[in-house]
Amino acid sequence: MSETSPKLRAELEGIPTYKPGKPAAAGGPVAYKLSSNENPYPPLPGVMEAVTAAAASFNRYPDLSCAALVEELAGCFGVPASHLATGTGSVGVAQQLIQATAGPGDEVLYAWRSFEAYPIIVQISGATSVQVPLTAGDVHDLDAMADAITDRTRLIFVCNPNNPTGTTVRRAELERFLDRVPSDVLVVIDEAYREFVRDREVPDGVELYRNRPNVCVLRTFSKAYGLAGLRIGFAIAHEPVATALRKTAVPFGVSQLAQEAAIASLRAEDELFGRVGSLVGERTRVLEGLRAQGWTVPDTQANFVWLRLGEPTVAFAAACEQHGVVVRPFPGEGVRVTIGEAEANDIFLKVAEGFRREL
Length: 359
Ligand SMILES: Cc1ncc(COP(=O)(O)O)c(C=O)c1O
Prior knowledge:
The chain is an alpha/beta fold. The chain has helices spanning 47-55, 67-77, 89-101, 117-125, 142-147, 171-180, 205-210, 239-248, 256-266, 269-292, 313-322, 342-358; strands at residues 32-33, 84-87, 107-112, 128-133, 153-159, 186-190, 215-220, 233-236, 304-307, 325-326, 328-330, 334-338.
């Protein structure tokens, strides 16, 4: 038998592995997972029933075109059904967007630090990541990003609000940026946390997309809608891009369970808005609590807060874990803490207070 292993693409060398948020420890007195920006609420009314009914026929393939969901989304957003494309979470759709636009020799531009899947999916494609540092205030530096566009740039991610900082770019600066981007470069506005935005100056990407054929909006059912485990997200884009997304989709990637759950969630919007409102209230409480303790925390419009701790990041995360909350450390930079149940947020605030006193 030969000793050589199958030839694998050189691009796979050194791809950073995606670090999922650590699960809450089992068996402790309390254990809250504030490490993955998930929704602390159980499924919305009607969702369990829809999923249970769909489960009875999972010997069948799902609807490949997600037709009923697409119809529902088209009505919700006031866009043609042909402008919608679904996928296995918005990260799946993001990967399809890169496959559709970029390969070896091409560049994909995004702010850094931002969503940690971007460098991974770019590297898999063989394209090159161009990362533009956030400003000192942890916001996208859109002027520097526009300056970094070259004739090899194929796709630009604008993560709004940004993961992990929660910071946003506002309408005037985003429009000015879009005006500077060549019309043959795709701009993907990743709005995974859109439902949590309360700042009216933060534009809804769907409005920006309408008269800009090179703008695509990414949304997900994983965060506000609480369907992270079912893997479903979607893009709204003009027809050439939406068609390309259908070509790059894994056939039957979105399960019927996910499709039915998404439809039922959209139909429970009143309840959804109530829950999101409560989380936004908790977000304000946590932010104000941290600032009262003396921390400098950037404004957040997402379901998490960012503490730029620098060196003691890992020690802070360990202290949180000791007290029963698991947060997401980015060693040497800071921690991202999801807004969870009030009890979990209380524990986090208490740990932050004690840690601050010892700094
Ligand atoms: C900015 C951003 N985009 C996309 C995603 C992916 O979400 P999903 O693939 O669950 O839809 C996340 C998840 O954390 C995110 O933070």
